[in-house]
Amino acid sequence: MNKTVTKLLNIVLILVMIGALASPLIGTAFTYPSEDDFSYESGGSAGAAEFGSSLIGSLYKVTVIYKMQQGCYTAMFLDHFIRPYSRFGLPGFHIAIIGYMVLFIWATWLVFSVLSRKNKTVSYCAMAAAMLSTFTMTGSVHDTKLFYWYTAVVGYTLMFTFSLFALYFSVLSVQETDNRKVNLFLVLSAIFAFLGSGGSLVITSPTCSFLLAVVIVSFDRVKAKKKLLIPFVFAMIGALVNVAAPGNYQRASADLKEGHTTVFDAIRDAFTFYFSEMKNVFDPIFIVVILAVILIGVIYKVRVKESGITNGMMGIIFVGVLLIQYFTVFPAAYGYHTNELSTHVTGMYDIIARFTFIFLGLCISQWFGETVVDKLTGKVSIGGKVDADHVVKYALGALTALALLLALVLPSAHVIVKDSFTARTFRDFKNGRFTEVYRIREYELTTFELAEEGTDCIIYIPWDVECESLPGLGIGSDSEWFTNVSAAHLFNLHTTTVLMP
Questions:
Q1: What is the pLDDT at residue 385?
Q2: Is there a contact between 340 and 270 (Cβ–Cβ < 8 Å)?
Q3: CA distance 158 to 114
Q4: What is the pTM of this model?
Q5: How does pLDDT run across 197-217, given as a tens digit for each residue?
Q6: What is the spatial distance between Cα 446 and Cα 216, in angstroms, rounded to a whole number?
Q7: DSSP string, 266-280
Q8: Which of left, alpha, beta for 100 (phi over 0: left; psi -120 to 50: alpha)?
Q9: 264-271: Cβ within 8 A, 24+ apart
Q10: Residue 382 pLDDT
Q11: What residue ranges do the domains of the chain occupy?
C-alpha cells in the first residue's frame, strides 16, 4: 500500500479514536459519589477505624461480604481500601475515575496491538473499532454506569481491564523467545488473571475464556512449554474462589423468581438474552466497523497467528468467540434468576461481545488472505491488468463502502449515534450541564460534610438540572433508604435527606 495513503489512513483512524472517547473522558472530571459508593466509602472508613488499619479493615469487610453477599474479592477489597472520596475528596475521586478509564483504554490498545503483532495500521483500526464499540453504538448509553459510577467502574470496568492485561501478557509470553521475559510475562499475566477473576462473574468468565483461547490457539507452543498454562490456571483458581463464596448463593436464593430457579432455567435464560441482545451488538454501525476491520486486515496482511490460520482453526476460533459471549452472560442469568439483566451488566456484555467480534474479524482477515487472496494472486487476471488479490480487495472495499453508505442514510443509524454515550457527553459538555449538575452535587456533599455531627441534615434543592450522562446522587427524600443511611454513616450524621420539587 502507498506510504502516503497509509499515513493518511493512520491519521484518520487516530482521529476516529479521539472523536469517540474525548467527551466521555472529559466527563470523568465532573463525576461524584453515587448510590452504593457511599456504602463502600463508609464501610471502608468504619473498618479502618475499628482495626486501626485500612488494609486489615478492608480484608475484614471482604470476608463478611464473601460470606453474606458475593464472592468478587478483588472489587470488594478495592472498594473498601481505596475510598477516593473519603480519603482525598472530590479531586481524588476524579483522579481515580479518570485513571480507571485511562487504564481501560491503555489495556485495550495493548491487547489489539499485540494481537495484530504490532502491525501499526491494523492496530489503529482495531483500536478505533474498540473505542467506537464502547462509546458510540447501541447500548453505550449504559456507559454512565460503567465509567461514571464508581462501584460499577471498579466491579466491572477495572476488572475487565485486569482481564485485558492478563490476556496481553499471556499472548506476549507465547510470542516471546527470551526465557527471562517469558517468565516475567507469565508472572504478570497470572497476577492480573487472579485479580480479574475477583470481579463480577460477568468478568470472571471471559477472563478464564480469554486465557483458555490463548492455550487453544497456541497449543503447539503450550504443549512444548507447559508453563504457558500458568495464567489460565490462576484465572481458574480465582474463579473457583469467587464462585465458592457462600454469599453468592444466599443473595441468589433471596431473589428467586418462578420459572428461573434451576441451572436449566439459567441455560435457557442465557440463550434468550444472548439472541435478543445480538441484534443490538450487530447494529448498523458495528456492521460497517467490522467490515472495515476485515478489509484493512486483508490489505495490510495482519498475522494474528504466526503459523497461519487453517480452515479447522478458523472454525474453532469462530465457535470459541460465540461460546465466550454465551458464558459471559450465563453467570448473570443464573445469579439474578432472570433473562433481563441490569443496565451495567448488559453494557459490559455488549463491550465484551464486540471486542471478541473485532478479534474474530482480524482472524477472518488473516484466514481469508491466506486461503483466498494469496492462492489466487498472480494466477488469475482480468484484462491482463488486474490481479485477483486486487479484485478481492476492491470487492471488500466496495462492500464496506456500501455498508457505510447505508449506515449514513438509515434513520436507525442516526438514532443510535444521537443516543450514544459520546453524543450524550458531548451535549452535556456543550450545554454546560456537566458544570451545573456538578455544582449542585458539590453543594449537597459539602453541606453534608459541614453539618454538625449526629444531626438530621435536610437539604432542599429548589431546582435540579437534568443531565444525560451523569448518574444521580441516590440520596432522596426517604431518610431510611439504603443510600441515605450509608451517606449518614459516611458523614457521621443521624440522617441525610435531599428534597426537590
A1: 47
A2: no
A3: 20
A4: 0.92
A5: 999 889 999 999 999 999 998
A6: 54
A7: HHHHHHHHHHHHHHH
A8: alpha
A9: 265/337, 266/330, 266/333, 266/334, 266/337, 267/330, 268/339, 269/333, 269/334, 269/337, 269/338, 269/339, 270/326, 270/329, 270/330, 270/333, 270/334, 270/339, 271/326
A10: 45
A11: 3-30+70-246+258-418
